[in-house]
Each structure stands twice: as C-alpha cells, then as structure tokens.
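Hi D.,

Good news: the full-assembly prediction came through. Inputs first.
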Amino acid sequence: MTSKIVSIEIYFPCEVEVSNKQMRGIDTVLASICADWEAKHPGRIMWPFGCGAKMLANPLALSDDEPIPFDESVLQFEVAEREAYAGERNFVAAHEWHERFGLTCCRVCGIVQRADGKNKPCKGPMKLRPLEGPLPETDS
Ligand SMILES: [Zn+2]
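Then the structure:
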C-alpha cells in the first residue's frame, strides 16, 4: 500500500507497555518514511522530532501560569520538516543567474539557463584541470 497520509493512528484494545527498544524501532520506521519523502522533495528535510505523552493544548495559547495538559495514555510521535540549509543532506543550491555574453548564465557553475527554467541544481564552482593526453584533432 502506498498512499498519501499526514498521520498514523494505532489503538490498542487494552493498556500495553512500549519498551525503549520498541520506541527506537518506531523511530526507525518514521526515519525511513522521512527519507523516502526527502528523496522526492529535493531541498527539504524531514525527521522524527520527538515523542511523548500527547499534548492536549497549544502551549502558546496558554498563559504562563497555566500547566500544559497531557494525555499520558497516548504516545505521540512528532515529525518536523523544513528547507535544507547549505551543507545539510538534501540541500539544493540555487543558481545565481546573471547576463554574460548575451546569455543568462550561473555566476557559480557557469551553466546556461534553460528556456524552460528546468536546470538541474547548481553543482557549485566549476573546477578546471590541466589537459591530459594528446590534444584533440582540429580542422585547421
Ligand atoms: Zn549554478
């Protein structure tokens, strides 16, 4: 089964205990789901953020002296998602377009911008190396 969802709910018919090892197992499954999502969303990262008793109110909506109500009978896992920063996994560098020789080129990698705007992500500064082997044949 593959379908698009935003949460997973599991109800037990009676109270059960979840060991730390089992919690890590659930976390591993969530990390796998996040990794698959990241593969389809370049430039974004998603990760298991935390777990614990279910919070029953938004703490930002409560006053400072009001305790945060929790449902201790519900184990809740949170997953977070955001744009990937430079140097992080799944980071996609954007080209820095500028006009050069009558063409729109990337200031960093030198690639020419496609008319449809569907260039692959910027690969960073182009590196040149000395030519090795015989020179290529020319017509002149
Ligand atoms: Zn570039």
